[in-house]
Design a protein that fits this description.
- By secondary structure, this protein is an alpha/beta fold.
- The protein is 28% helix and 15% strand.
- The protein is built from ten helices and twelve strands.
- The protein has a seven-stranded parallel β-sheet.
- The two termini are 35 Å apart.
- The model has no long low-confidence stretch (mean pLDDT 95).
Amino acid sequence: MIKILIDMEMNESAVRKLRGIPDVETAFIEPDENKARTLPPELIKDRNVLFCTLPPVNVSAMSNLKLLQIASSGYSQLYNLGLTERGVKCCNARGVFDVPIAEWNIAMMINLVRDLRGMIRNQNQGTWDRDARFQREIRGSVVGLWGYGGIGRETARQAKAMGMVVHVMSRSGVKALENIYVVEGTGDIAGVLPDKVFSADRQKEFLSGLDFLILSIPLGKRTEGIVGEEELKSLPRTAYVLNPARGPLIKEEALLKALREGWIAGAALDTHYHYPMPPDHPLWNFPNVIMTPHISGSSLSTHFNERVCDIFIQNVKRMQSGEPLLNELTPLQLNGN
């Protein structure tokens, strides 16, 4: 018997599917996704599986825990919990956000290249302006994906459908995905979409040929500040930078300098250096920057919960049958590398 504790919202359909799995016992608690909390020891001591966003403060008391499924792609909340040493398998929600973030990427590229902010300013002022800068298109442009995980792959699929050229720079190369959650009909499971693939030692060549740079790598010790002055200066002055990944991937002062001095044409930022971004932060005031409040992943859409629950239910079944789990995190990842 697998004893499951669920600290997550689950729709009725997902609950029925979970309870339809043989030899499964489920217990639900009122979710609180904003902070880690201490749960009653008698509730958690014999549970084998935990489904949550933030593990409880006393997760070490879950002596029978075998699987911890989180509902976020980021997994820093699992650092230094000693889960690997205890033999607990941990899985994240990779793949859940691929479609909405890829759509955000496409929307931002179109909005930047057509200067939608400028058009809205004109509308607010009642100004009729048919300048050529409002009439450009992204077809034929080169989009560079720094990283080729699920978000990069779905962005590549959508960009190719829009007639764009796709370049990829990836430390691990481009290959088929195995045991990673992918929404049916999306992404690039076989790794065949990029027009050109660059290794990390060809970074300057990769950057110098782009119209758009999209960051799609996780934040860790190795990647924090990976984009600085040198990288931004390597881009054409006509290129745009999109960051739906994590704000600190780009050095803050380097980005501000690049925008002030015109090293790049503009930026779209969904992840930031402060939460919330203070209203007096200079990034709000650049006319060629689009700022969104970390909503590209659309975690409040109905699709989010459906997909997270789908991963969890598939992993419970895989756990029962001894199959590899979806999105299992490695010990190296759980150490923040």
